């Protein structure tokens, strides 16, 4: 039997804060779930409940305190993202797992085009080819061409979020982690996000999104996990 | 002794360096918990204790820590300029070949290796440059050591390197003393790149520069890393600099590596008390 | 000089222990061509800097059957050459000559004679400054390490800068060479003209620096390569059309003298630096 793309088992995260008298805080209670390929998996719940913590543990920005996260990697086979060595994680981030944070964090002095193309550059794609794809995405995201050479630092929140999403989708990873993808977006752009998720699924990407916006993302989710 | 490469360029094992006679209490009275690398009993400095790391080809590894944490000692040992008391530095030439322990090379081969395969950029330009020679002569030194014996070709390559590092090529024959701090870092980078090294060591390269100049030097380093896919080891006390360039980071304190991990994990989920302090102290 | 005066000295003035020490250093120097070997450098009855290094080597290796020639700037009759010759002959009693071909031991400053030297001859050169690296590394200890590791990049930068600044390798004398593909050596103040005479020569060349207390050597058949660039090759001082005003030689190293005219004024005249060579050409023996 084929393994699921992602199997989270007994994931638990606690932070030991040495600077505050060694206090421990645990934003996330034990959680387990399974994500199949092509699936859109929605995690929802109020803020502070540990939705983002799950994504960050999968992406290894956080070190899980307990539990396993089994990922069916093309390159490494079945691999526990909690234990995998750093270089494996870096390769997975380049080739198989994408992450879109809640806020775009980019370097000033880098153009919107280069920002959105960066994941492709990292995959070793030739610059010209990558930029052709990048331009397509920028116009699809409704970014006017005069902005393409400007730094996203100067953009509005909505524009920045579009660049942020474009960057995550462009690499067509096998697993895409989206943190509040529709926050700070207008209704029209929210629909655009839903379409992007659907298109990504059609291309073979499984999406895990984290949101409190059940109204927009709920209808397009194959599975939902409520954190209470 | 042969080692499996597992696709690494450099693998450091148990690298230690101490300055002083040492005493039985040294290791107990120094380290991150004691908050010092100097033994209060005998005065010995345990500058670097059992450091281990590995570098994959093309990756940028950051080393962060306060002054006296041992990060520069570690870098100088990797530059084969400071001889460790113990440990090994395995080097595997990209594309195969038997890994060699750089610490077993004789002085001649070590210098040759340093010239051909390593490049270093120091915080203070006068450590990396000969202020009596012209800028072109300084860059040419690496080419001359690699037995380039054609002045025309040397100047062509030097000009190319100066252009790549955004230096005014027409000033090739000027003395380094007439260049600004940011430009001198570029000259050092040009020199370091001259031999197309496998590993570039960067020691606090932007410390002491104006903020705008700092940003441009970092942009340059990022661009070069991008274009040449060069492996880099970046030492800085500034997490901001590390975050811009390095995808993996090592945190040092009082001669010890206290934590290592993906840079975003170090920033977002630091484990060691010192790292938590460091991250919370970022401006 | 009476018989009793001569008894005050051993053969060759310096004592046998000193000679033995110098000979040991010489053997080491021959074994490591181009490598600077330290030696004690005794006080001599002439001032340091006036050829005491060469003199000590000569006195350490001279034998009663040797025929000695002493030259200074190619000239057998200059004051320094005459003084040194007198000192050596008075303390050894060896025969002297000005004829390069007749000499078995030649002490020289600044020149290698024009006539090709043979394997049965030894040329001793007086060295004012030893280390070619002094231009780029004034610290002797560090320079010694550089020699030890054959770390000559900085000297090459110096040569590069010389080309860039002057458009050519503007080093008149003390031209640096690599001996036996290993050590960088200063060629003492011999002109570039003579540098290639060291290369694969039949003769043993010994270099002594009394002030700096160093001995080095280029043994016979040792490759000696001047530092040069492919596009700026090593060149001698040769000028097309040059000739000696006395003997008419076109293939010799010339020096110029100011010859005053009979009614004031005067002119610069070029003639062979090697006087014995010049004289022999004039008398038709050469």
Average of the residue pLDDT scores of chain B: 92
Number of domains of chain C: 2
CATH level 1 class label of chain B: Alpha Beta
Proportion of helical residues of chain C: 25-40%
- Biggest sheet layout of chain C: 7 strands, mixed
Strand content of chain C: 15-25%
CATH architecture of chain B: 3-Layer(aba) Sandwich
Q: In the CATH scheme, what's the topology name of chain B?
A: Rossmann fold
| CATH architecture classification name of the largest domain in chain C | 3-Layer(aba) Sandwich
**What would the principal axes of the Cα set say about the shape of chain C?**
globular
Tally of discrete structural domains of chain B: 1
Structure overview:
The complex is a heterotrimer of chains A (228), B (283) and C (286). Chain A has 228 residues and is an alpha/beta fold. Chain A folds into 2 domains: 151 residues, P-loop containing nucleotide triphosphate hydrolases (Rossmann fold, 3-Layer(aba) Sandwich); 72 residues, no CATH class. The relative contact order of chain A is 0.19. The model of chain A has no long low-confidence stretch (mean pLDDT 91). By secondary structure, chain B is of the alpha/beta class. Chain B has a single domain, classed as 3-Layer(aba) Sandwich (Rossmann fold). Chain B has a 6-stranded mixed sheet with strand order 6-7-8-3-9-10, sandwiched between helices. In chain B, strands 2-1-4-5 form a 4-stranded antiparallel sheet, covered by helices on one side. Chain B starts with 9 loop residues before the first strand and ends with a helix. The N terminus of chain B is likely disordered. Chain C folds into 2 domains: 183 residues, Bacterial phosphonate metabolism protein PhnH (Rossmann fold, 3-Layer(aba) Sandwich); 49 residues, no CATH class. In chain C, a hairpin with a 5-residue loop joins strand 11 and strand 12. Chain C starts with a helix and ends with a helix. The model of chain C has no long low-confidence stretch (mean pLDDT 90). Chains in contact: A-B, B-C. Chains B and C meet through helix 3, helix 5 and helix 6 of B and helix 6 of C.
């Amino acid at each position: 039997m084929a393994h699921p793309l992602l199997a989270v088992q007994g994931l638990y995260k606690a932070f030991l804060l040495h600077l505050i008298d060694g206090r421990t805080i645990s934003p996330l209670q034990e959680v387990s779930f399974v994500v199949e390929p092509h699936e859109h998996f929605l995690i929802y719940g109020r803020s502070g409940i540990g939705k983002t913590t799950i994504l960050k543990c999968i992406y290894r920005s956080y070190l899980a305190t307990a539990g396993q996260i089994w990922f069916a990697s093309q390159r490494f086979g079945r691999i526990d993202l909690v234990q995998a060595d750093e270089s494996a994680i870096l390769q997975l981030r380049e080739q198989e797992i994408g992450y879109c944070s809640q806020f775009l964090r980019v370097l000033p002095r880098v153009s919107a085009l280069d920002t959105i193309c960066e994941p492709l550059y990292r995959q070793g794609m030739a610059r010209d080819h990558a930029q052709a794809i990048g331009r397509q995405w920028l116009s699809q995201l409704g970014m006017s061409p005069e902005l393409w050479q400007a730094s996203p630092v100067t953009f509005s929140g909505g524009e920045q979020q579009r660049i942020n999403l474009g960057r995550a989708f462009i690499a067509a990873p096998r697993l895409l982690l989206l943190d509040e993808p529709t926050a700070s977006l207008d209704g029209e752009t929210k629909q655009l996000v839903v379409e992007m998720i659907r298109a990504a699924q059609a291309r073979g990407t499984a999406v895990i999104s984290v949101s409190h916006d059940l109204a927009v993302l709920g209808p397009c989710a194959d599975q939902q996990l409520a954190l209470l | 002794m042969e080692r499996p490469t597992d696709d690494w360029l450099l693998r450091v094992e148990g690298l230690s360096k101490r300055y002083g006679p040492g005493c039985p209490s040294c290791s107990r009275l120094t380290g991150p918990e004691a908050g010092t690398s100097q033994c209060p009993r005998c005065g010995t400095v345990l500058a670097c204790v059992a450091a281990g790391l590995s570098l994959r080809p093309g990756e940028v590894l950051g080393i962060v820590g306060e002054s006296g944490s041992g990060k520069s000692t570690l870098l100088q040992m990797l530059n084969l300029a400071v001889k460790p008391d113990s440990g090994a530095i395995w080097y595997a030439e990209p594309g195969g070949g038997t890994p060699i322990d750089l610490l077993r090379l004789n002085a001649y081969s070590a210098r040759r290796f340093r010239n051909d395969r390593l490049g270093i950029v120091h915080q203070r330009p006068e450590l990396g440059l000969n202020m009596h020679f012209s800028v072109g002569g300084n860059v040419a030194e690496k080419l001359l050591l690699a037995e380039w014996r054609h002045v025309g070709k040397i100047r062509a390559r030097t000009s190319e390197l100066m252009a790549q590092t955004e230096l005014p090529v027409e000033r090739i024959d000027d003395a380094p003393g007439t260049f600004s701090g940011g430009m001198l870092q570029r000259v050092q980078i040009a020199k370091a790149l001259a031999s197309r090294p496998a590993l570039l060591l960067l020691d606090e390269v932007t410390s002491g520069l104006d903020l705008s100049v700092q940003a441009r030097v970092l942009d340059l380093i990022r661009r070069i890393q991008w274009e040449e896919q060069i492996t880099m080891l970046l030492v800085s006390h500034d997490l901001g600099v590390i975050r811009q360039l390095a995808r993996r980071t090592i945190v040092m304190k009082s001669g010890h590596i206290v934590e290592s991990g993906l840079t975003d994990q170090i920033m977002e989920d630091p484990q060691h008390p010192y790292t938590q302090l460091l991250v919370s102290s970022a401006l | 000089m009476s018989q009793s005066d001569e008894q005050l000295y051993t053969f060759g003035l310096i004592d046998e222990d000193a000679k033995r020490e110098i000979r040991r250093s010489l053997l080491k120097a021959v074994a490591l061509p181009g490598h600077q070997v330290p030696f004690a450098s005794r006080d001599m009855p002439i001032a340091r800097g006036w050829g005491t290094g060469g003199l000590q080597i000569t006195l350490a290796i001279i034998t009663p059957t040797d025929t000695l020639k002493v030259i200074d700037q190619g000239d057998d009759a200059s004051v320094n050459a005459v003084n040194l010759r007198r000192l050596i002959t008075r303390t050894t009693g060896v025969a002297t000559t000005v004829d390069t071909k007749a000499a078995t031991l030649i002490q020289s400053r600044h020149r290698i004679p024009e006539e090709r030297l043979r394997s049965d001859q030894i040329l001793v050169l007086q060295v004012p400054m030893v280390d070619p690296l002094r231009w780029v590394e004034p610290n002797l200890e560090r320079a010694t390490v550089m020699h030890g590791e054959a770390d000559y990049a900085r000297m090459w930068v110096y040569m590069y800068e010389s080309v860039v600044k002057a458009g050519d390798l503007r080093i008149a004398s003390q031209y640096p060479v690599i001996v036996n593909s290993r050590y960088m050596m200063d060629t003492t103040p011999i002109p570039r003209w003579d540098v290639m005479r060291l290369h694969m020569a039949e003769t043993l060349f010994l270099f002594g620096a009394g002030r700096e207390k160093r001995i080095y050597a280029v043994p016979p058949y040792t490759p000696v390569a001047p530092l040069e660039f492919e596009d700026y090759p090593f060149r001698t001082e040769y000028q097309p059309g040059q000739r000696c005003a006395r003997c008419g030689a076109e293939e010799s190293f010339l020096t110029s003298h100011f010859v005053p005219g009979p009614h004031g004024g005067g002119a610069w005249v070029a003639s062979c630096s090697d006087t014995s060579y010049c004289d022999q050409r004039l008398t038709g023996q050469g």
